[in-house]
Amino acid sequence: ATDVGSAAKNERLYPNGMRDVVRSVWQTDGFRGFYKGYGIALASVTLYRIVYLGGYDFLRSEMSQSSVGDNTHGQTATKEASIVQRFAAAQFVSMAASMAHYPLDSIRRRLMMEAG
Fold it and tell me: What is the pLDDT of residues 29-43, one digit of tens each?
């Protein structure tokens, strides 16, 4: 924490409860202090969801298109991906989404720690 070592010997470093935290944030930053880091939090969650959900749908459709075959009636039929392929796609997309999300999450945490 940023306030370590800045208090006198008998002064309390940590708040006594939620009321102290709310009072401290209100006195130092006002109403906007309660929402520090909120904008970047929305951006990071949006990016995470786009990469996670969109990436998985994209990979699933690519896997089903790569295993297309012709049936007896001359129509193309899509073959469902195996459970191992779907699991691998989910793991890959989860890691990619987390890697895209992490820098924004670090900024969010730092902004939230500055409040109050």
Answer: 888 888 888 888 899
